[in-house]
Amino acid sequence: MGVRLLVVDDHRLLAEALASALKLRGHRVLAAAAPAVGAADLVISRAPEVCLLGTAAPAEPGTFDPVVKIKRERPQVAVVVLGPVPSPRGIAAAFAAGASGYVRHDERIEGVERAIMKARAGEAAVAPQLLQGAFGELLNPAAQPDDEGQRLLQMLTPREVEVLVRVAEGEDTRMIAAGMGIAPSTARTHVQRVLMKLGVGSRLEAAALAARTGLLDRAGPLG
């Protein structure tokens, strides 16, 4: 039996892609929305069974304020956080706010669906490997993880970074070309170079990788 869902992420392309995939698997998606700051009010008004809440910075103060508000106003709604590889503080903050689960942005749709079903059933939905990684960092705080977002950012030219941001915002080749004042063929070439440098096969994969590593937040807004 399908689940009534809301999908909220600051990156609209990711929210809409995930919503479409879940609809194909028989779930009822009430809305796919951005930005995440409006998640609480949307959830309160629509009352889904589960809310998938995307974030690129789980350890930042205030990130999970919407979760606190949702659980206060609609305690029956289960919230599953979609985010990058979390620090122990990020996982702790999510669950302390009232989240029922944490799933990585690059998780396969089957894994996201399992988390949804567990959360609806009232169970904690977090992959064992995420917990193991978090505990490992707690036990060995001197071992700092590689800053993958910064590493990827350094691989791209400023123009390629702009192309990636536009891809993540859902722009097609024509819109990218118009926004950057270049020919569509040039825009297409830039997109292909970005995909090649990031080692991914599609625009959606590029957007997901950029969101998971925090690259988009480092790149900053357009203009």
From TrEMBL:
Source taxon at top rank: Bacteria
SMART domains the UniProt entry points to: HTH_LUXR
Record domain Response regulatory: where: 4-120
Alphabetically ordered keywords of this record: DNA-binding, Transcription, Transcription regulation
GO molecular function: DNA binding
One GO process term, biological-process aspect: phosphorelay signal transduction system
Domain HTH luxR-type: 149-214
Name of the molecule in the record: Transcriptional regulator
